[in-house]
Amino acid sequence: MKRLAILFAPLLFKLFSTALAAAPLNFITTTTDLSWLAQQLGGENVQVTALLSGAEDPHYVDAVPGYIHLVSNADAICIVGMDLEIGWIPKVLSKSANAQVQPGGQGYCDSSVGIDALDVISGRVDRSMGDVHPDGNPHYHLSPSHMLQAGENILGVLIKLQPDNAEVFIQNFETLSDSLTALQGEIQTKLDPLKPYKFLEYHKDFGYFFDAYGLNSVGALEAVPGVPPSAGRLAKTSISAKKEGVQLLVASSHNPTKVLQRFTTLSGVPFIKVSTSIQTHGDINDYAALQHHLAESILQAAKQN
User: Fold this and answer.
1) Of 299, 293, 251, nearest in space to 33 by CA
2) What does the domain layout of the chain look like in residue ranges?
3) Which of 27, 87, 96, 164 is most buried (CB neighbours < 10 A)?
4) What number does CATH give the domain 2-183?
5) Please, which residues bridge with residue 50 across strands?
6) Do domains 2-183 and 186-304 have the same CATH topology?
7) Could you report the per-residue pLDDT of 27-52, keeping only the tens digit for each?
8) Are 60 and 86 within 8 A, CB to CB?
9) Tell me, which fold does domain 186-304 have in CATH?
């Protein structure tokens, strides 16, 4: 019996090693958009979990114990970056005590690296300026080309953690590139009629989306990012929106409805609230669905005005 154990030990070791190599990576992302991206690239080699559901405002989230537990067992984590999660993800990472997913660790991924950012701030920045992001607007996921750049950052982490599957990951990335290019073409065709229109955003959530499709945003209703506009700001912006011929105010689903209604009353400019992320529950369950939701919602609302 002992001799058999010795004879089969190399085989058992090989089988055990293969099983370990084949185990899917426990890949955590902060947002549902990044979880979709990681799944497209990792396929069956990853088990992806998003900390958020897509319904939250990712600026304002608490570092709850459930997040810490998930991250403590992660092989990798991917964040949006550009300080979007600055109020909570550093606490989650620190309390997780997982060395591999700390900044600089082999399982840490900031998907904003290399992004051609909008709204980069130069000079001094402090909290009195509101919810500002010195490195640029972090809502880049609404542009398919920027989403692909984020995917390239995830690809790098996947290859680092599972080099034997590099060829599979690269093929998945090429497939993703083709599908995002095709999707952007579809959405562009839908939105081309809106190029003469003028839009106002509540918060600068839509800058990359408008930029990707050549639409004209005249600015944001918020004077201070993350702070509801004052009565004076509402009045001033309502007057300027009338003068500039703004056709539609576009807001995220978590923006305050009463403020939007007040703006419409003062300006006569209608508003819509839309989802800005893939949803854990509901019909907006992948990136194509999100892009079509945004395009169709804006198109229908703008043409009714």
Assistant:
1) 293
2) 2-183, 186-304
3) 27
4) 3.40.50.1980
5) 29
6) yes
7) 999 999 999 999 999 999 999 999 99
8) no
9) Rossmann fold (3.40.50)
> For residues 291 and 187, is the Cβ–Cβ distance under 8 A?
yes
| DSSP designation for 221 | S
Would you say 43 and 168 are in contact if contact means Cβ atoms under 8 Å apart? yes
| pTM assigned to the model | 0.90
Classify 60 in phi/psi space as left (phi over 0), alpha (psi -120 to 50) or beta: beta
Residue with tokens 């979990």: 49
From CA 143, how far away is CA 180, in angstroms rounded? 10
| Strand order across the beta sheet in which 46-50 lies | 46-50, 25-29, 76-79, 108-110
CA distance 114 to 118: 12
- CA–CA separation, 107 and 99 (whole Å): 9
Alpha carbons 269 and 261: distance in angstroms, whole number: 10
- How wide is the angle at C-alpha 99 spanned by C-alphas 97 and 101, nearest 5°? 100
